[in-house]
What we know:
The protein is of the alpha/beta class. The protein contains eleven helices and 13 strands.
Amino acid sequence: MARSFEPVQLGSIEIFCKAAELAGFTAAAEALGITPAAVSRSIARLENRLGVKLFVRSTRQIRLTDDGAAYKQQCQQALDQIAEAERAIAGHQQVPSGVLRVSLPTTYAHYRVLPRLPAFSLRYPKVTLELNISNRNVDFFDEGYDLAIRMGEPEDSRLIARRLEDASLGVFASPDYLRRRGTPKTPADLRKHDCIQFVRPSTGRAMNWIFREGGEDQEFAFTSKWRVHEDVLGCLGWARAGGGLCQMYHFIAGEAVRRGELVEVLKGWRGRTRPFSVVYPQNRHMSAKVRAFVEFVLASVRTT
Length: 304
């Protein structure tokens, strides 16, 4: 026989989420301005209604059960949506505010986003930014991120992607390396050179180099004994030191080229690009803070 549920009591949900967040009934009671006994009774009623234990209790602390953790995730999303709806109705939606959690890939963060963040903070002083800078693909729904910048398009249908730019690629080497080893004239010449490959963290595979000739994309598949894991900037540093050739985004290598530390080769085959997009969950697309960050990054990247 199916369990008969009483109407949801939002007060109990809020108390449960606060106790889970602060890992204690007393701490939740202090934060909410009620007694610890009231918190305990509310949690007990909620557990009785659901027919599961939400917390494992000891004399000194509490922790969520597996059921409690799953329930907390769903409840927190619902409370966040309710808060957004209330802000919209009250007319506060026009003022971006609150904590904005953003995940950024390392190179794009350092070369395209971080230099622009002071201007964002000046424009939106009520937004608190928390950044995760790594090449790991975060889980929006399990880890609570508001948005991310990623290469390519997301496969998850729950996510919305807006294209930031198509970042162009070139092949670079130090002047010293080219004096010692010569300058490649075609991609086929690369087989006679030291080519530094980057291994993608998401796949564990070395990335092939890509070129464009006559409007057609060409992929240069090879296996090199010179490889860099995790941080693609290692390829750039290795090439600057004279260790070989690397394929890199122009927005990363440009400064080293201007300083004379690197030289671009195979210019006739450049033009191939990789797309970068800003990605966010569908259920957060109306958030003022998310919308402000997305529009700011789109405008700033496209004007450079």
